[in-house]
Structure formats: C-alpha cells, structure tokens
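idk why but the lab printer keeps eating my pages so im just putting this in chat instead. protein + copper (II) ion:
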Amino acid sequence: MQFTKSFCLILTLMSINLSAHISDRVDGHAPIGVMADHTHNKGEMMASYRIMQMDMEGIINGSDDMSTEELFNNSNYMMAPVNMKMMMQMAGIMYAPSDDWTFVVMIPYTSNDMSMQSKGSMSSMDMGMSMDSMDMNHGMSSSGATMSRDSNGLGDISLSGLRKLFETEDERLLVSLGLVLPTGSETESFNGTRLAYPMQLGTGSFRFKPGITYSAYEEEFSYGAQAIVDHALNTNDQGYKVGDKYLVNLWGSYTLTEELSASLRYEYQKKNRISGMDEQINSMMMPAGNPANSGGEKHSLFTGMNYKPNNFLKGHRVAFEIGIPIKQTSDGPQMKDNYIFVLGWQKAWKQN
Ligand SMILES: [Cu+2]
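predcted complex ->
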C-alpha cells in the first residue's frame, strides 16, 4: 500500500514535470510573427502555414510624412505611390534528426498590389501646352490618373538549421543558420516595363541569414529576444544587391489559461540601401524605382494570441498577431507602413 502510494506520487510528480516542459506550453512557441524561435525533439516534424498581410499607405520622407503634392513639387518623379498591399503566404516544414539540430524549409508565395497616382497638370506643362489650357489645369488637381500594378508568385525559399545551445526547464538558447535561395522572380514586369524593387517577388541573390534566440519561462509569464541578420552574398543577374537587413525582436507572453496566451512584441528592423541598380527599372519614374530610396528603419509594436487546444484538436496550434508602426524613418521618399496582420497554424507530430 505504502509502495503504491509513493509510486503514484512519483508518477504525479513526473507528469507535472513533463507538462512543465517548455515546448508543451501554449507560449512555448514565440508570437507567430517570429520565425526560427524553437527547435524540436529527435524524430519530431512540424508543418506550418502563415498568412501575412502588410498594408502601406502614403509617403514618408526621412521621418516626416509627405503628401503627393509635396513629392511632385520637390522632385521630378512622374508617379507617386498611394497604397500597397503585400500578402505573403508561407508554408513551412521542420524536422529534427536529433535533439540538438532542427532543420526548417520555408516556402513563401507573395502577392503585391500597388496603387499610384501620376503627375497631372505638370506633365501638360512639360508637353508645352498653351497658357489657356495651363490656366484651366491650374484649377484642377495637380495629380492625374490613378493606376495599379500587381505581381504574384513564388518568393525566395529559405533553408535553415537550428542548433540548440542549451535548454533547461525554464530557459532556452538557440542559434539559427539560414540560407535563402533566389527562387523568387526579380524580373516582374507590366506591359514590358520592369516593376519597381518593392514589387519584385525575390531578391535574385543567395542570402546568409544567421540568428540567435533566447527565451525564458516563469510560471505564467515568458519572454524572449531574437536578433537576425540577412546578408545578400552576391550581386544578382539584374546588376544589384539588396542591402543588409537587421531584425531585433523582444516579446513577452502571458498565459491566460493552459490553452491560451496573449503576447506583446516590439520589433526593430533596419534595412540598408540596394547597391547597384537594375538598368531596366526607370529610376526617374517613381521613388520606389530609385535604389537611393531603399534603406530605412522601423520600430513596430505587435499584440497577439497563441492557442494550443487540449480538446479533439490537440497537437494543433493557431495564432495571430496585429502590428502597427510606432516609428519609421526612410532614406528618401518611401511608402509608409500602415498595419501588419499575421495568422498562422502549426502542427507537430512524432515521426516513427
Ligand atoms: Cu516547429
């Protein structure tokens, strides 16, 4: 009897210990907008799918807002960006051949949609219109027609190896080594005219993407930090190389219940300018076609939730995040961030 009792106690303690394992917690995965944040145990696989919707509206120049009028009055560009929607769908597979290493393949599919406005009366002046029609044009808006361009297709596929440096019951540190392949098109065109850099689906370059992630877990609270560098290794076939990108993430998650956690995340992004240029992209047409306007910094704030049900959907994870910019600075006129929405699903299983 005494033995049974102590045996039961040991079993109970063991199960508490098991359920206390970091990866089993609802906040065991970082907020859904963070990639390469966790590893798996030997023999485990995970499938994931994310939809990311990014919305940009208006123009920012340095750290100031800029109107369409201001852009046309202070430059020779013929087009001004109005709105851009970028939707990225990302399918991912993770596999852990050992407890130390997890490999990840990420396959993005990108859809871009950009609306813009052409310079109106100014262009008729350039065309040598008479004084009369110039005066008539003066009464009208100085902005002309609105038009839109879109591009969609496969983006740049990434392959990464995640190495667990250490994991205790309440802490985890891992490094990631990523290689991004130039599988996305960097030659998207409309009516024979090459689209501007932000409208391209890929960078055209092989990229090295190392990163480091630390997470810590308290009873009901967890937090983490991540830093990632994205470095293009070669100049692409079109004659340019995207600038280095630096990404820093800090987040905290609070477990509301065993199945639900809420998170707050700060993201810092710095992007250096494109070096070189694609001769087929007209750098005088619009700001986004000029490599001088491709660098900048962004600070954003995200809030979201992780859901890891214990019911018939056990093993699945669903999560979302909504982000807004808190500060953005740009090298030259660029589109201004409006909001980001991320929705994701993950399912892990043990491979036999
Ligand atoms: Cu995973």
